[in-house]
Batch of 2 targets.
Target 1
Amino acid sequence: MTSLIKKIALGTTMLASAISFGAKAQNNMDDVTIEVQELRGGIYALFGRGGNIGASIGEDGIFLIDDQFAPLTDKIKAALAGISDQPVKFVINTHWHGDHTGGNENLGKEGSIIVAHDNVRVRMKASDMDRVAKGEMDMIRKDALPVITFNDELSFHLNGTEARSIHISNAHTDGDSIIHFAEYNIVHMGDTFFNGRFPFIDVNSGGSVDGALNAIDAVLTLSNDDTMIIPGHGPIANKGDLQAYRDMIQTVRDRVAEMKGNGMSLEQVNAAGPANDYAEKWSWNFISAERFVGAIYSSL
Ligand SMILES: [Zn+2]
């Protein structure tokens, strides 16, 4: 291993800007460096700003999982050029958020085929139409939209192996996919896993705490102690990291469910602090204990 694993631990400030996928986060990316970490079997993780990228490299071309922000496309391509002379043939988006799909338009215009769950296309198109209506954009970004969408599962047979994309309903959003390279025991979880941090459950995009737990259980079921997990944010994880994340979410979820079941308002629940004992270890500047609890409360 060379100097590949530098700067993999992302700072919380960086993560916050990664999550706020508005125009502000699109600016000032000059300071971002794309770091490449080789996993195994021609599969890599790329870390820059925004959601972690997965890449399968081989004779059939580059298969990319997520593409961060539009201003980073050239840097991402330069990083990929260091490990492959092939073009990006396919991109799959793990969900619709802009820190995972921002590079779609650039790559789509260059001929990459964009693939995602049905609801990713629906939400991306609706968001663009909303911005057109508000005068923030002239027209929708047609080349950014997935051209192949699926409902349940989809397999890619590329670079001598199979990557299975599995939809988990109503987890981080209503369009999440996890991508499993069974032969190499690697999973990309998108934002169904924030390694070491409270989850962002985007209830406004159809996310829910129970779906988030289902996504984790699906990955735990296909994992063993040798599994390498690419989270949406944070460093590469193992099964134990994911289990700890699950235990934390389940505990807080059950506390909130009991309180809500007893008729407590969200304000009363937050006053009781059901996630407070986890806050020191897991909170970050985008998701406080209160925000985590609020997402659980509203999705139950
Ligand atoms: Zn997300």
Target 2
Amino acid sequence: MKLQNTFSAAIVATMIFLAFGNASAQSGVVINEIMASNQTYITDENGEYEDWVELYNNSSSSVNLGGWFLTDNPDNLDKWEFPTNTVIPAMGYIIIWADEDSSQGPLHANFKLSIMGEDLLLINASGATIQDITFGQQQADKGYARSPNGTGNFTIKNPTFKANNDTGISSANEVEKAEVLVISPNPATGNEVVLRSKSAEKQAVAIYDQLGRERLRTSFFNQTTIDISNWPTGIYFLKTSGRTQLLAVQR
Ligand SMILES: [Ca+2]
Ligand SMILES: [Ca+2]
Ligand SMILES: [Ca+2]
């Protein structure tokens, strides 16, 4: 009898846990921001202004999105499948271009976002709906973003591509500080960019593209000039020990 009671209690506890687990839909991976009318804000790897979806991992573990789905159609839940081994780091961000350009890279979905508003759903590999949002009329070059970042309700605001919706910082554990580097010109349209350090110490910097691939790693005193002549159009992330800064390359 006692065992049975213990067992029942365990079931009740599990049910309560599941109920709360469902209620707190903002734990784990969330649809964090969208842009449904990108006129001049940011381009994809092909230099095209496209709709985009930002996901944020609101947890302390990385999540492999391989086999998950993103869709703009509640009647077609497996419309676009994330490629195998699409990993979103803990407290990290990932961008999916909604441009119907599947040939342009792994994270290009086979649908676009309507400026008039529509649905957007995130489905996990088991077929469970993780996120189901409906957005209304959007504005050109504005984001529709959760605030507070990762948990709050959506509002139309200035976009923060692959970065915290409240601060524009690209990772939750990076504290907002004064800029470490002066980057000029930025956006860059030529063949060179000058990085100037605000510190007297030797400055290390690593530069990554939007897919997290390292493009350059260097360290220097005072200032350095980097050759970007063969860098595709897009946003690059300059990581120093202090913070991440963005460099936009436009061709
Ligand atoms: Ca494109
Ligand atoms: Ca659509
Ligand atoms: Ca954002």
